[in-house]
Write a structure and sequence with these properties.
The chain is of the alpha/beta class and about 350 residues long. It has helices spanning about 40-45, 50-55, 120-125, 125-140, 165-175, 190-195, 210-220, 235-240, 295-315, 330-340; strands at about 5-10, 15-20, 30-40, 70-80, 90-95, 105, 110-115, 155-160, 180-185, 205, 225-230, 250-255, 270, 320-325, 350. It binds NADP nicotinamide-adenine-dinucleotide phosphate.
């Protein structure tokens, strides 16, 4: 069986690079020869059992070891039911947990073509953050998609707007004509400032002005606020942002679930998008459809991944700023520690597989 190198992440965030079989596609899978892999906070959190348990309750083991969710590369093989991809295509894939390796598995509903004007690096910044932002706005808050832009003016507050999920929320909200956008960021606020449209009431606020001044500014711009997307999601943000929401018909999107959600007043609806849930069977009682079929989440991501190719090609959507760490797969441990310690401010960490010592000439 052909083999490849794959990174395993351990609870203390040290890594090993091990041999593993090159994955074989299921019917709906695309196997990708990875050129660039991208890191997300869940990669270190899932490797750290204590954090994983906090987020996921009674979990007894880490979620996974080869954590990488985002990668870009060339199609290597396709499953029997895959229609739109062929060997050699340039693609970006959000995947369940196979991205810190030479080859990964891109499910057809979360794989997209990369247009020629976009590099593998820019593409690798999109997957999980883009998808979570789309889920928050269009699945949980039920805004109309960017192909049917809203005609209703309703303020949207995005906290942590310079984070990857926050910035994609701002970008998608602007494309869907959701305004005014009240974007709250810190030193990386320039990531979203050019997207905001002051003529439509959008503003950028700096969270470092302090919570009282922030509340005052928000109330000025949005005296009646019904929608918050919180990319930071902790006790402080819930306590600061929930009093700004109207008592009727308000929703609060938590990008990160956890005990802080219990602080949300009962009159506000809590919404928690969870992109990795796209691969789990749906709750039969949910509006997403019967158990096992998982049709609605798949349809959702098919639509949004196809839209991503279009929007990147047309220059409507840009990736997130990034930093390429020097040694490919061998730098993943440093990337995890950097994310855990909040060193990545305003950047995605990326890893070029060919930069891995010993793999460059393959
Ligand atoms: N639900 C899901 O499926 C899902 C998917 C992806 C991510 N997440 C979660 O969502 C959260 C954000 O992930 P991400 O990838 O978007 O993060 P990220 O890009 O790593 O976020 C980094 C940014 O967060 C900002 N920040 C840090 N502390 C802040 C604070 N106290 N107030 C305001 N901004 C602060 C910083 O902004 P400045 O530099 O401007 O200060 C920094 O640039 C993480 O907890 C992650 O685990 C969940």
């Amino acid at each position: 069986m052909a083999s490849m190198k794959e990174v395993f992440i351990y609870p203390d965030l040290h890594i090993t690079i091990d041999d593993a079989p090159i994955p074989v596609p299921g019917d709906n899978d695309i196997i990708v020869k990875i050129v660039v892999a991208g890191a997300n906070p869940i990669d270190w959190k899932a490797a750290d059992e204590k954090v994983a348990q906090l987020i996921h309750g009674d979990l007894k083991a880490p979620l996974h070891r080869n954590a990488g969710k985002d990668f870009a590369g060339y199609v290597h093989a396709v499953g029997s039911k895959v229609l739109n991809f062929k060997v050699g295509d340039r693609v970006i894939a959000l995947n369940h947990s196979s991205g810190f390796a030479e080859y990964g598995v891109g499910p057809a509903h979360t794989t997209a073509h990369i247009p020629d004007n976009v590099t593998f690096e820019e593409a690798a910044t999109t997957g999980l953050a883009y998808t979570t932002a789309a889920l928050g706005l269009f699945k949980h808050l039920r805004f109309k998609g960017p192909w049917a832009p809203s005609k209703v003016k309703t303020p949207l507050l995005v906290y942590g707007a310079s984070s990857a999920t926050g910035a994609f929320t701002v970008k998608l909200a602007a494309l869907a004509n959701i305004h005014p956008i009240i974007a709250i960021a810190g030193k990386s606020g320039d990531i979203v400032s050019s997207i905001l449209e002051p003529s439509k009431g959008d503003i950028l606020l700096d969270y470092r002005i302090g919570k009282d001044a922030l509340a005052q500014e928000v109330r000025k711009s949005a005296p009646e606020l019904h929608y918050v997307v919180d990319s930071i999601s902790n006790n402080d943000t819930v306590d600061m942002l929930s009093p700004l929401l109207a008592r009727e018909e308000s929703s609060y999107v938590f990008m990160l679930g956890g005990p802080h959600q219990e602080r949300l007043p009962a009159y506000i609806k809590a919404e928690t998008p969870f992109a990795p849930g796209l691969w789990e069977p749906t709750d039969p009682a949910s509006p997403d459809g019967p158990e096992g079929l998982n049709i609605a989440p798949k349809a959702f991501t098919h639509a949004f991944f196809s839209y991503m190719t279009f929007a990147l090609q047309e220059g409507l959507l840009k990736g997130h700023p990034y930093e390429v760490l020097p040694n490919g797969l061998a730098s993943i441990g440093d990337g995890m520690v950097g994310l855990r310690d909040g060193k990545n401010s305003g950047n995605k960490y990326l890893f070029r597989i060919a930069d891995t010592p010993g793999l460059g000439s393959k």
